[in-house]
């Protein structure tokens, strides 16, 4: 342990003397202490004190020009996709499972927007998804009347083509696989296949034989238990049932994996 009452080493004393000498020289050349080469004390190289390189005197934080809007394009695309999937799910025959799937799509969209301090809304009058900065809202209501510049908002029309066709294609394929399992295998596997088909269609819009290990675990440990009303026999052979689904699906021509899904898997 170093004692605080020891004399400092010679190199430290020498450095201190150098710093004191430099300070004395600075005071001699600038007795008022207002800044070297700046007689008005308003900033080096800026006689008007209005900001270096800014003739209008307006300071701009780095990157301000890039902040309109603040949400990355990929995040906007995903928010649109989730909104369309929620609509597509609700357009099907209403069931508690469908309603839950639609709500989960909206929750995932809202959580994504919140990551960038934005709020997602669907504007009914022109059928558009709009992302607003959180500071524009008050008690859940967007107050556009208080804003002069609305460029930070993001608008996406929902009237054009989107993922609805993809959802129908995947859902039809997954249903076909579940029906094939019902025709070829025991009822215990058929019930699980039907529930798994709904899970993959409504939650991920992916073919049943394209499920990742994480998706299978989510289905096995969460979705099936909460939404599938499984029997003890189903739970005991759920892994076998998922293997049956994959083997049956291999004999059925399925839809191609979406490009964005493949890219997401490759980057994981």
Annotate the secondary structure layout.
Elements lengths: L9 H20 L43 H19 L4 H20 L2 E6 L4 E6 L3 E2 L2 E2 L11 E4 L6 H21 L2 H18 L8 H15 L4 H5 L1 H12 L9 H9 L1
Antiparallel strand pairs: 1-2, 2-5, 3-4
User: How many β-strand stretches?
Assistant: 5
Overall 3D shape: elongated
User: Any low-confidence stretches, pLDDT <50, length ≥5?
Assistant: 1-7, 31-68, 257-268
Placed side by side, the strands forming the largest sheet appear as 1-2-5
- Quaternary structure classification: single chain
Q: Ends: how far apart? A: 49 Å
Reported for the largest beta sheet, the result is: 3 strands, antiparallel
Helix content: 40-55%
How would you state the average pLDDT, rounded? 74
Strand content: 5-15%
Supply the helix-strand structural class: mainly alpha
Order of helices and strands: HHHEEEEEHHHHHH
What's the number of helices? 9
Rg (C-alpha, Å): 32 Å
Explain this structure.
The chain is mainly alpha-helical and 268 residues long. Among the domains are: 73-157, no CATH class; 164-255. Helix content is 52%, strand content 7%. It contains nine helices and five strands; from the N terminus they run H-H-H-E-E-E-E-E-H-H-H-H-H-H. The protein has helices spanning 10-29, 73-91, 96-115, 164-184, 187-204, 213-227, 232-236, 238-249, 259-267, and strands at residues 118-123, 128-133, 137-138, 141-142, 154-157. The protein starts with 9 loop residues before the first helix and ends with a helix.
